[in-house]
Structure formats: C-alpha cells, structure tokens
Design brief:
By secondary structure, this protein is of the alpha/beta class. It is built from eight helices and five strands, in the order E-H-E-H-E-H-E-H-E-H-H-H-H. Helices cover about 50% and strands about 10% of the residues. Helix 3 links the parallel strand 3 and strand 4.
Length: about 220
C-alpha cells in the first residue's frame, strides 16, 4: 500500500527535519511559503496538509487557509504553530474553510502522529463522503415520508367517497375524523380535493368549495 502523502508548509529547516524523521512512514514533502504550497498543490494532491503560521517571505499560514480549502476542500489541515493566540486558534477551527486541528509548538511528536492518523482516516475525504451519505439518507427519508402521506391521503379519500356515493346527506365530519384518526380540517380538505377532482358533486357541499382550512 502506498504511503499517505503529507505536505509540510514550514520554513524552519530544523523543524522540517524533525518532521521528516518522525513521520518517515509517510510520504512527506515540503513548501516554505503559502505561495509555493499553492503551486505544488496544483500538481500534487496530499492526503493531509501540515501548516505553520510564520513562513518565509513574511507570509502567514492562516492567510492561505481559505485558499487551501477552496482548492482542496477534502484534504484535512493540521496547523502547528507557536505564534498563534488563543483567539487565532479558535478562528482557524471555525467556519466552512477551517482547519481540523490546531497544535502549539513545541509539538509532542506522538500526539502529532495520532492527530495525523485520525485526520487522514476520519476527516477530509471520509468526512465529506459521510456528510454526502447522510444528506442522501435525509432526502430519501423526506421523500419516503411525503409519498407515505400522499398514499394515506388518497386511500382515505377513496374510503370517504365510497361512503358518500349513495348518500345526499352532508357527511358527519367529526365522525369521519374520529374514524380515520385525523383532524376535522383534514376531512374537510379531503372533501375539497375530491370536489376539485370531480369525484364529488359540489352542489352537495357548496360551502366547502371556497372554504380553505389551514393545514396542521
């Protein structure tokens, strides 16, 4: 199995060497600025981005966070920096174009490894797929519920029509509501629907041609 790829955006040579040594079971490659990282990302997609805040050429890592997320929204980002205030860390973890983790330097390598493994296995692409599947299940559930309600309504209306076909009397709304376990206004709406469809004679129920009960 090929190694997971990690783009480390870090300007300090010593810190990058620490990452290379401690993360040797990953395919680690480097950029020293956010601008360079964007150029690299256009040709090589990592499984995770490890981002420092203070970079070469006076660039700041957080300034590129939105660009990275817009370019590769499915790639998790772990920020590792000793130059961020608490409010900056919180800000980096909020919103649609956010990082997944924010660790402070000096970072515990074992803790970093655990975060990286979790981010690669459960965040990013996996997270997007789960969100999409959840959305599809929600939509399917809504559709099934709508179809079920529509089927119940048509079945109830057919039963009501059978009861009324041989009678010219006004129906007992309350009795029908109790029988079908619905609100009175639901029965009235059923009668209106059948009148509009031509299933019932509007002359028998002239009042309900115009009355529009509010839905529950």
């Amino acid at each position: 199995m090929s190694k997971a790829k990690i783009l480390v955006i870090e300007d300090e040579d010593l810190q990058y060497e620490i990452y290379e040594d401690s993360l040797s079971d990953f395919d680690v490659f480097r950029a020293t600025t956010g601008s360079e990282a964007l150029q690299i990302l256009s040709g090589k997609v990592p499984d995770l981005i490890l981002l420092d805040h203070i970079l070469d050429s006076g660039e700041e890592g957080l300034s590129f966070l939105a660009d990275f997320k817009q370019l590769l929204p499915h790639v998790p980002i772990v920020i590792v920096s000793g130059a961020l205030e608490v409010h900056d860390q919180i800000s980096a973890l909020q919103g649609p174009r956010r990082a997944h983790y924010c660790l402070t330097k000096p970072v515990d390598i074992e803790a970093l490894r655990k975060v990286i493994l979790t981010a690669i296995s459960e965040c990013g692409e996996t997270e997007v797929v789960k969100q999409f599947e959840s959305l599809e299940r929600s939509k399917r559930s809504d559709i099934e519920s709508l179809l079920s309600r529509s089927t119940d309504r048509l079945s109830r209306q057919n039963h009501i029509k059978e009861r009324l076909d041989d009678s010219l009397k006004r129906p007992n709304i309350s009795a029908l509501a109790r029988e079908f376990r619905v609100a009175r206004r639901t029965i009235i709406r059923d009668l209106q629907d059948m009148i509009r469809r031509g299933q019932l004679d509007p002359a028998v129920y002239p009042k309900w041609e115009t009355d529009e009960p509010s839905e529950t």
